[in-house]
Amino acid sequence: MSSKSILLGVNIDHVATVRQARYKDSPRGCGQFVEPDPITVALLCEKAGAQGITVHPREDARHIQQADVRRLRECIATRLNMEMAATDEMLAFALEVVPETICVVPESREEVTTEGGLEVAGQFDRIERIVKAAADAGIESSLFIDPVPEQIQASAKAGAKYIELHTGAYANAYYMASERQAEYDRLVEGARLADELGLIVNAGHGINYVNVSEVITIPFLHELNIGHSIISRALFFGIDEAVREMKALMAGA
To answer: Hey, CA dihedral for 190, 121, 174, 107, is it positive or negative?
Structure first.
């Protein structure tokens, strides 16, 4: 896919992180004195050109709350992509909310944010069951995986429509020339294999205003999901400018 047509999904989890730092024990999740409101930010992202909104309601509810996801479902005009752990509880919630897409991710209470890709091959029956249940409800599935052939092949076999390649290792190695090239090559080969298997290729984790210009040269990319970098840039320049600048870079500007 041409870089000019790669879609941008904005992850707004970190907006809720700021809210929860002050108001996690408040009976209200929005309105009056409770701020910032992630749904308001999501609407501003859409206005600036984002083609999707991503949230990750975690088991420990550390940032995005289930009430936020329900409000997003009612308010946004673009696609809702809900990241979720591979649990029966989160599947039930997805079937209640019916986002356009779920992205099944690994989840650990100890991590600050999602680290590493999902083990699809090692828990194939569970993942396949989630993908099928989602499809029966009209929800498309994505699996957040490392660019490893075994995981890509298992994702296709499980019936997922999308994979989201975990770009974290590449981002971490960005300023180490040999390691960076090796991680980039893994992403390229992973994208090529996924395309051969009929999977739509997304990517996310650690993508920022510096490395995105190289990320978009990975072949067959359909969408980038970016959160931390955009929300950080918005602190200085506003969410509208942060989204527009990222979209310009994704278009090769």
So the answer is: positive
Buried b vs exposed e over 171-198: b needs ≥16 C-beta within 10 Å? bebbeeeeebeebbebbbbbbbbbbeee
Average pLDDT, stretch 180-184? 97
Q: Could you confirm whether 56 is annotated as catalytic?
A: yes
Contact 225, 9 (CB under 8 A): yes
In the set 14, 56, 63, 166, the catalytic residue is: 56
Q: Known catalytic residue: 164?
A: no
Length of the chain: 253
C-alpha span between 152 and 190 (Å, rounded) = 7
Reported pTM: 0.93
Q: What is the distance between the alpha carbons of residues 126 and 134, in angstroms, rounded to a whole number?
A: 12
**Is 205 one of the annotated active-site residues of the chain?**
yes
Specify the 3-state DSSP secondary structure of 47.
Answer: helix
